[in-house]
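The aim of this short unit is practical: by the end, you should be able to scan a pair of folded records and say something sensible about each. We start with the first protein, listed as its amino acid sequence and then its C-alpha cells.
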Amino acid sequence: MNNNPDDMDARYIAMIENNVNVSKTSDLKEFFILVAGIIVLSIFVFMCADFIAGVWIDNMPDKTQIKIENIMSYGAEDFQLSAPSNQFASQLEFLNRQKLEIITFDRKLQGKSKFDIKVYPSKDLNAFVVPNGTIFFTAGMLGEIKDEQMLTFVLAHEMAHYAHRDHLKGSGRQIIAGVILSLLTSGQNNSLTKLVENVSNFNTLTYSKKQEKNADLFANSVIIKLYGNNNAAVKFMQLIDEKQNIPQYMHYFSTHPAPSERIYLLKHNR
C-alpha cells in the first residue's frame, strides 16, 4: 500500500476537481457573465419594445390616437401664462400663421390637432408639445428669440414630435418593456433589479435622443422649403449651446443630444 503523502494529496485534489458540486470557474467570472447576460437581454427586450410600439402606434387609427392624446394631455391648459396677452402678441401671431404652412407639408399633421400655441411661464429657453398637439413656448424663449426663421424651426421641431407620435411611442415602449422586464426580474435580488433599471434608464435616454434628432431633421426640411436654407437652424443651436454651457459629458445623461451633435447634423443636411 502506497502511503506517500504526495500521492494522497494528488488523489484528493483530483477528487475535488472532479466533484460536480465544486465550481470550476471563479465567482467573480460567473458574476460578470451574469451581468453581461442581463445587459444583453435587457437591450434585446427594449429593441423588441421599440419595434412593437413603433408598429402598433404607427398603425393606430387617427380617432384612437386623438382619444389617447386628449387623456394624456389632461390639465395641460393650466400651464398657460397669466401675463398680459399682448406681451408676445406679434410672435404668437406669426407662429400661428407658420403652423398653417407647416401642416401642409405632412399628412400626419392634417385633420387632427389645432396646434394651439401658448406661453409657458419660465425664463428658460425652451419649447415643448403636449400629446394633444398644444405647443408651449416659454416666456424666456419668446423674450430671447426674435428671429422669425429661428422661431419657425422651433415650431416645426415641436410639430414633428406630434407627426411622429413620439409621446405615444415613448409611453408604449415603456409599458411593453416594463411588463417584460418585471417578469424577468420577478423574485430576483435588489442588485439585479437595480442593474436592469439602470440599463432601462440609459436605453430611454438613447431613444429620446433619437426622437430629438428626427424632429430636428423634420424641422430642418421645413425651413429649407420655406426659406431656401437652414442657416437659422444652425444659429439657433449655436445660441442654445452658448446659453447652456454644459460640460460635454453631462449630455450622456440628458434626453437631448448635445448641441454640437445637432449642429453637425444640420450642417450635413443642407
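Turning to the second protein, read its sequence before its C-alpha cells, just as you did above.
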Amino acid sequence: MKVGEVLTEHKKIKWHECQVCGMPAYYRITYLASNCRANPASSAYGKDDCSWCSDADGYACKKHEREVSQDAPMGMSWCSAFPLKSFKHMGFY
C-alpha cells in the first residue's frame, strides 16, 4: 500500500434474534449433550472445563433469557449464558 491510497474494509456482523419474541438477542445460551464429557460426539468430550463448549446454541433477549435457558433441545441440557457483547471478537454485535 502506498501513501494516499484508500483502504476499504468490510466487516460482517452476525445478528441474532430472540427465539421467543424476535427482538435483537442479548444473550447466547449454550447447551451440551447428555453425558458430554464421555460422549465423543460432544464438544466437551474429555475436557475438564466445558463452560465454553457448545453442542447447540440459543439466543434470547434480556426479557426471555430464563425461558430460552429452560427450553433445551431434546437430549441436551443448559450449559451457560453469555452476553453477546463479550463475543465482539467473533463478529457478534
